[in-house]
Amino acid sequence: MRVNRAMTWLAAPLLAALALPAGGNMAHAQSTTAATPGISEERLDRLRAELQRYVDDGRIAGAVMQVRQNGRSVFSEAVGWRDKEAGDRMRPDSIFRIASQTKALTSVSIMMLLEEGRLLLDDPVGKFLPEWQNTTVAVPDAAGGYTIAPAERPITIRDLLTHTAGLSYGGGPAEQAWRDAGFAGWYFADRTEPVAAAVARMGSLPMAAQPGTKFVYGYNTDVLGVIVETVSGMSLQAFFDERLTGPLGMKDTFFYLPADKADRLAVVYEADGRAVRRAPDADAGTGGHYHGQGHYLQGPRIAYSGGAGLLSTAADYSRFLEMMRRGGELDGRRYLSRKSVDLMTANHLGSVEYDPGMSFGLGFSVRTDLGAAGELGSEGEFGWGGAYHSQYWVDPAEGLTIVYLTQLIPAGDIDDHGKVRALVYQAIE
After folding, report:
1. CB 134 within 8 A of CB 126
2. Which of 1, 104, 158, 256 suits a disulfide with 301, CB 3.0-4.6 Å?
């Protein structure tokens, strides 16, 4: 699955002791691999070796990866360093900024409210957020500027879920107007303005395309998060705690990190040629206004970004994905109807242009044509990634859930996502 769009704008108990390899200069992976019908333990060793190679070659500081098949952990690996400069090794329970992987939980929350009869996918956003009742669009002109035209129809909840609302991350013909309003790849963690107030201001700015006409990756899911808050009467953190992360046992998933977990937060690095360097600290921007280290620890803790705000672990996120793979149920508790999951993972773009062999559903990219996509995988798999170079996908045909977490922004020309995908699928017997 390609998650380059996300990257451009921003993108179970584990056993065994950590040990340094020969030479002692690099943390060896903490891992478990359990053979199961359909997966070769021997061939999964290739995946383990490749992850370690990226660390040894200095392309990443560290990473955690978890693969499950039919609910069973078949591969768990923690490689390299949580904090390279401090000599602190990566652990299976290390906590990562998962950025746009937050979108999946917010999208599921919207579907929960749909199942309760509290909204419809074709409801106008303005029904819940008055500032969005009459939106406009920036239309490029021959002089290199733009004119402002009324939207041809109201933006709907479905438009937001499919990223066809025309709502960017501050780009498009009216980029300067968005920047002047304080919106440019903004992930909210450092802000004292609640997301609801920011979203209200967005409603008056010109969009980058007419609703329903183009895939435009942007603040769509932040708007959805505010709709969740408006309809439920709860903060997004409280809704997640009560309806998703709490019941699922995602004990290390938060918008802001509790102080007693600070020593588990992975450090952010950025590509520097074919090496990595530590990203700037909280008071400096990197990678297009993404903040480096500190806001999730020491920020104002006010803005809950439904599009990009969560912290999590591989184990936690794997539980969420396993619930989705099982059609909305896990451990005897139902979170969504199986038919809602079917709808979320169907092709909703129709003729709207997107990556070859891929489409987009309600919160996830979806693989529709294996040959056109040109990568190992299965038709019907769904997933996405995060700006800090994390990636996940679910392959119902093979019973797989895959979570790959690292903290690298910008990522440069590293090819680990393609290698990880290939080495997962080559192990299938």
Report:
1. yes
2. 256
